[in-house]
Design goal:
Blueprint lengths: L3 H12 L2 E4 L4 E7 L2 E8 L4 E5 L1 H7 L3 E5 H11 L7 H13 L3 E3 L4 H22 L11 H12 L5 H8 L1
Antiparallel strand pairs: 1-5, 1-6, 2-3, 3-4
């Protein structure tokens, strides 16, 4: 019994997540090959994202006031035989947040953003130190050596040498 209480409270907490779309995002409806698509334009990053009709339906619920559970219920009522799992809703909201199109308006959302940023910075540092090709050690300046070499090897870069080497 003790293990189900934290699990159910976690599910309840996840259902109460509120996601808000950025106010400067532009959404336009387009028709392509007889189907409706919605194109989201991010004016800050100048990136475009294409959504299907059902994804746009969910996007309308991302106003910061309604929860993921509200969006899930409305989706299941509108698209009657289709079911939508909470995990799928969270994944969709997570994609929007990672793309920078939405933000978490739930209590504690700011703390999650800080934790995510710290984790990303930590991973960048680890990658920088573990990638052997990234390590830059300024041993010598190759320009001085190349200038010295060109006075003895200039003839290699002539058209006469090119024609002779092709023959």
């Amino acid at each position: 019994m003790a293990t189900t209480a934290p699990l159910s409270s976690e599910v309840e907490r996840r259902k109460q997540v509120r996601v808000r779309l950025r106010p400067d995002i532009v959404v336009d409806r387009h028709r392509y090959e007889g189907r409706s698509y919605y194109v989201i334009k991010d004016p800050v990053s100048l990136r475009y994202y294409r959504l299907k009709e059902n994804e746009h339906f969910l996007l309308q619920f991302m106003d910061g006031k309604r929860t993921l559970a509200d969006a899930q219920k409305a989706y299941e009522a509108h698209y009657r035989p289709d079911r939508l799992r909470l995990e799928d809703m969270e994944a969709f909201a997570q994609q929007l947040m990672k793309a920078g199109l939405a933000q978490n308006e739930s209590p504690g959302g700011g703390k999650l953003l800080i934790e995510r940023r710290q984790k990303r910075k930590r991973q960048e540092w680890i990658q920088a130190f573990t990638n052997i090709l990234y390590i830059k050690i300024p041993v010598l300046d190759p320009d001085k050596i190349l200038v010295w070499m060109i006075q003895y090897t200039w003839w290699i870069f002539t058209s006469l040498f090119l024609y002779a080497s092709l023959a």
